[in-house]
Specification:
With 376 residues, the protein is an alpha/beta fold. A seven-stranded mixed β-sheet has the order 2-8-7-6-5-3-4, with helices on both faces. A three-stranded antiparallel β-sheet has the order 9-10-12. The protein has a two-stranded parallel ribbon with strand order 1-11.
Length: 376
């Protein structure tokens, strides 16, 4: 029996998503841009999927743009803003906590003449509102700050950021990478003052290949993917209908967010209480982190050694972001975590289907590995 605890990397598709994807491949397989009946039926499915996401986010259907995933959504938001606002200013602001799909795009824009500011978090993985305020000015065209960090689970005060931008007399767009937050905490981009928000289907039990970008109706972006003009001209290319419709099916299958969150909190607390029995465990996630993500360091046991040992027992966790494979965590480094602690860090990420038995098996696996490695 396997124990899958790497849900921040990807989740197991739910049955509803799998069923819908198969239906779209076997029955409603037309191109939604085609004008015959097969295409028209596919277009109806596309419209319904868009309505599902817009209802969940309390926004308009026209504000949802489908992408191939969170990375494409982040790239579209950032580069689209930079191109649309290049005559208004050259300053862009983000944090050292961001996903590589944000940071690498900021580095690219820097090479093209933009002034990029990378805000450093505190030891709890939080970026202070004062530091954001100090960084934003009238020359700023974009602020990109994630809702929940994918490695340690720290939650940013995103509800305050648009107010800061407005108070600094800046016309900057506020982009939020909400890939790890979507479906786990309540999110309404309009209520939170978010202009652009990225989400992904395979992080919530959809299948890989579909994400979405919320674009506020008052925001103007320029496209970087040109072609047939799909997604209202912003993201050209035939929509991946099986993945998009599976994404919508997974949204419908989320259930009660508050109850899911309560369960995840109980499991997180249960596990943290158990591992107090193991010497040399350090919790890298802040106490108020999203409970779905638990980052710990195990003294004397390198991350890869722990991962390999657990994997041999059918227990699957991670050493950090799946997109920074082979590199020391920049997130933990920015939080001031020492090198030895980073090199022994393990990320455990839960889903709504995780149960107490999973956490017991994980604890036993860690305890056994610690005994075996430290005895050598």
């Amino acid at each position: 029996m396997s124990v899958y605890l790497d849900n921040s990397a990807t989740t197991k598709p739910c049955q509803a998503a799998v069923k819908k994807a198969l239906e779209m491949m076997e029955r409603t397989f037309g191109n939604p841009s085609s004008l015959h009946m097969c295409g028209i039926e596919a277009k109806k499915e596309l419209d319904e999927a868009r309505r599902t996401l817009s209802k969940f986010l309390s926004c308009n259907d026209s504000e949802i743009y489908f992408t191939s995933g969170g990375t494409a959504a982040n790239n579209t938001a950032i580069f689209g803003t930079a191109r649309a606002k290049r005559r208004e200013g050259k300053k862009i602001v983000t944090t050292l906590l961001e996903h590589p799909s944000v940071l690498k795009h900021f580095e690219l824009l820097e090479s093209l003449g933009f002034e990029a500011v990378y805000l450093k978090p505190d030891k709890n993985g939080k970026v202070s509102l004062d530091s954001i305020s100090n960084a934003v000015d009238a020359n700023t065209v974009l602020v990109s700050i994630m809702a929940v960090n994918n490695e340690v689970g720290s939650i940013q005060e995103i509800s305050k950021i648009k107010e800061i931008i407005n108070n600094k007399k800046s016309a900057a767009y506020f982009h939020c990478d909400a890939v790890q937050a979507f479906g786990k905490i309540p999110l309404s981009p309009r209520k939170l003052g978010i202009d652009l928000m990225s989400i992904s289907g395979h992080k919530i039990h959809g299948i890989k290949g579909a994400g979405a970008l919320f674009v506020d109706r008052n925001v103007r972006l320029l496209p970087s993917i040109l072609g047939g003009g799909q997604e209202n001209g912003l993201i050209s290319g035939t929509e991946p209908m099986p993945a998009i419709c599976a994404f919508a099916a997974a949204v419908n299958d989320i259930g009660n967010i508050e109850k899911n969150l309560e369960k995840a909190t109980e499991l997180r607390d249960y596990f943290l209480e158990k591992i107090k029995n193991i010497d040399g465990i350090t919790l890298n996630s802040p106490s108020d982190a999203l409970p779905y993500i638990i980052n710990i360091s195990v003294k004397g046991v390198p991350s890869q050694v722990m991962l390999n040992a657990l994997s041999a027992e059918g227990i699957y966790v991670s050493a950090g972001s799946a997109c920074s494979k082979g590199h020391r965590s920049g997130v933990l480094s920015s939080m001031g975590v020492n090198a030895a602690q980073i090199d022994s860090a393990v990320r455990i990420s839960l889903s709504k289907s995780t149960d107490e038995k999973d956490m017991d098996l994980l604890y036993n696996g860690i305890a056994d590995t610690v005994k075996r490695v430290r005895r050598k």
